[in-house]
Structures are given as C-alpha cells and as structure tokens.
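ok, trying the design again with the full structure, not the truncated one.
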C-alpha cells in the first residue's frame, strides 16, 4: 500500500499494490451504540425546543394509562402555556390576514361593501380528553339528571335527520315490546 489517510487530510488516494490487495472501512466497536445515543439526543432536543410532548410508547412506559384520564391535560400543560404565550404574536398577524380576506369579500360581493364585517381570530390548543368522564362528572354534579335532550345528543352524534331516526327507534321499540309480550304469553 502506498499513501495513507493520516491527519484527516482530504484528497488522499489509497493505492493498493498487488492483485490480492484489499481495503476495508474500520468500524469502531461501539458505532451503532453511539449512533442510537445521537438519535435519542436529537429527538430529545426536538421535543424540548418545540415544547411538544413525547407520547411514544417508549416515553410513556411506566406512566400507566396517562392519556386516558384527566391527567392528559397536565401532560399537555407546557405546550398550551406556550401557545397562550405566542398568541400575542399570532393574533395580530391573523387579524392582518383577516382584514385582507374581508377586503376581498367586500370587493367581490357588493352586499358586503357598506357593511363592517366582524371577525376575530380564536386560537384553541388541542387537548386529548375523555368526554365521557367529563359528562359523567357533570351529571353527578347535576344530581344524575340528563344534560341534553335525546334529540340534542343525536345531533351531537352526527345524525342528519334526527326526527326520522326517532320515529324509527319508536317503531323498533314497539316491535321489540310486542315480541317480548308474545314470548311471555307462550311461556305462561
């Protein structure tokens, strides 16, 4: 072999002498371990810089079922505080953009020309929550009385034609009750 890669100088050429000469990269014994440590460090830095929560299974190991309870609100508290802190920057920027959109509406639709369009940006941080637990708590405070009418809960569930659905439920209930009565009369 002639030439070498000493002192980390670039531009060196490795020349091998003979037909059976070969060269291989030298791999440090702990290269994969240091690479995984570097990956973990960079991932940790990303979460810290963005104030986001690492909810990977590895990160939540040992915390139990933290996201399924009201503790999720505490887990996401730092990102929510950061959002509220940054609202002083984003709300004025959103207002400027909204004024452009309002001007466009007034230009394109003559009905809006002389009217003052009122719009206000609202920033709501996302939170993973358990609505069932929340409603159960409200019902217990309310003396276990219903919070919503059947119609309101059906609308909340996304049913388009609530009145039609209620009629179908009533018909099904009548059918079920008549079958139960027939079964009771045949067994007696």
């Amino acid at each position: 072999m002639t030439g070498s890669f000493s002192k980390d100088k670039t531009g060196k050429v490795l020349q091998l002498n003979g037909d059976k000469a070969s060269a291989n990269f030298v791999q440090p014994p702990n290269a994969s371990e240091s690479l995984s440590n570097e990956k973990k460090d960079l991932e940790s830095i990303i979460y810290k810089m963005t104030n986001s929560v690492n909810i990977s299974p590895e990160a939540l190991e040992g915390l139990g079922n933290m996201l399924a309870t009201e503790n999720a609100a505490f887990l996401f508290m730092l990102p929510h505080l950061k959002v509220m802190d940054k609202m002083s920057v984003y709300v004025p920027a959103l207002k400027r953009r909204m004024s452009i959109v309002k001007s466009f509406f007034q230009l394109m639709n003559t009905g809006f020309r002389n009217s003052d369009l009122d719009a206000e940006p609202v920033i709501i941080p996302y939170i993973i929550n358990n609505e069932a637990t929340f409603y159960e708590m409200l019902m217990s405070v309310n003396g276990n009385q219903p919070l919503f009418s059947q119609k309101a809960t059906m609308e909340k569930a996304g049913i388009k034609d609530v009145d039609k659905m209620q009629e179908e439920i009533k018909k099904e209930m009548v059918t079920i009750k008549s079958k139960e009565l027939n079964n009771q009369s045949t067994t007696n």
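Keeping the full-length input from now on. Residues 130-161 form one domain.
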